[in-house]
Task: inverse folding
């Protein structure tokens, strides 16, 4: 049974010159990049009922399983090249697999990303993707490189995906714009690559801004001061929520897959040039400071008590 599914997957896999041997053997053979380049490897799992609602369309699952992985490469400033796919499926449903591949390919194909192997097993619905990319070894964007005085930036808008999830949990209609942010996150690959060598530290916002900026601070041995009223919000989010709920969603809502990065104030023109060149909006939202905590204040300077941080498994 699984061999028929693997054949379907194999028939759609993209060819690439640096894939010496793709799907079909015991393992793939890949041509490593040249001197000065590092391989960049990331893996993320999506479990039904945890990372996406049980009845999510298979194409949306396929898109998102790849998007969350590509977002990790974006946050390193890497260019994606290859990926592997582990599918755990309750049954051998070729229509589900075809739908899944529609979403997966819609993202992979324009990037020239080749699926080179994987595993197909029976079990609760779960999808695990590994992506492999390349970056200039010295210019990769790490979490541990933020410095006191850096400006903190974020791409796009925050809180949209979490607002969609909240509407879904409430059982009412889900705003289509917000829903698209949850189902079809767009990894910021172009911006990430353009920031390599410009930004100091970078992370993608998967767990929520405060939680993820907290990871950067911990790794870098610094604190951060965030201007809550500077956090970028979409019109859809403004239309769907009041001020208090909107601030909470923007500061702590996960699943947006925007980039949060820090750069010296002297690099501001270079940051704006990278944003312009890649067509990606960016907003300055605060500063890296001495210390070890993320603090937030409102536009009038009064402190804003942070709601408890982002999503934690086993929390
Ligand atoms: P093995 O028993 O050696 O692990 P498999 O039957 O699991 O072999 O896989 C056969 C081939 O199909 C391998 O090249 C494997 O990488 C590929 N493959 C299996 N499942 C997938 C999948 N979901 N996506 C892509 N390639 C897959
Ligand atoms: Mg196997």
Result:
């Amino acid at each position: 049974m699984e061999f028929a599914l693997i054949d379907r997957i194999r028939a759609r896999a993209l060819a690439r010159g640096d894939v010496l041997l793709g799907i079909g053997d015991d393992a793939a053979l890949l041509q490593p990049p040249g001197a000065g380049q590092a391989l960049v490897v990331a893996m993320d799992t999506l479990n039904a009922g945890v990372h996406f609602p049980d009845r999510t369309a298979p194409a949306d699952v396929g898109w998102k399983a790849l998007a969350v992985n590509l977002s990790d490469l974006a946050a390193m400033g890497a260019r994606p090249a290859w990926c592997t796919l582990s599918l755990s499926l309750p049954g051998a449903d070729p229509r589900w697999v075809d739908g899944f591949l529609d979403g997966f390919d819609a993202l992979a194909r324009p990037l020239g990303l080749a699926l080179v192997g994987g595993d197909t097993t029976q079990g609760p619905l779960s999808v695990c993707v590994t992506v492999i990319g390349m970056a200039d070894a010295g210019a990769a964007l790490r979490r541990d490189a933020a410095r006191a005085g850096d400006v903190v930036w974020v791409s796009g808008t925050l809180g949209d995906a979490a607002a969609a999830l909240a509407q879904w949990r409430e059982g009412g209609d889900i705003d289509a714009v917000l829903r698209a942010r949850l189902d079809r996150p767009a990894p910021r690959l172009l911006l990430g690559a353009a920031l390599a060598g410009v930004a100091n530290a970078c992370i993608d916002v998967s767990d929520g801004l405060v939680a993820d900026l907290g990871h950067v601070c911990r790794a870098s041995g610094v604190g951060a001061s965030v201007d809550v009223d500077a956090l970028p919000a979409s019109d859809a989010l403004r239309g769907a929520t009041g001020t208090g709920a909107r601030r909470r969603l923007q500061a702590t809502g996960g699943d947006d897959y925007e980039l949060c990065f820090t750069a010296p104030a002297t690099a501001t023109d270079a940051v704006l040039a990278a944003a312009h060149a890649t067509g990606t909006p960016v907003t300055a939202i605060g500063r890296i400071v001495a210390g070890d905590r993320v603090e937030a204040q409102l536009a009038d300077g009064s402190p804003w008590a942070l709601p408890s941080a982002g999503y934690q498994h086993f929390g």
User: Anything to note?
Assistant: Residues 82 and 114 are 5 Å apart (CA to CA). Residues 58-76 form the longest helix (19 residues). The first strand starts at residue 19 and ends at 21.
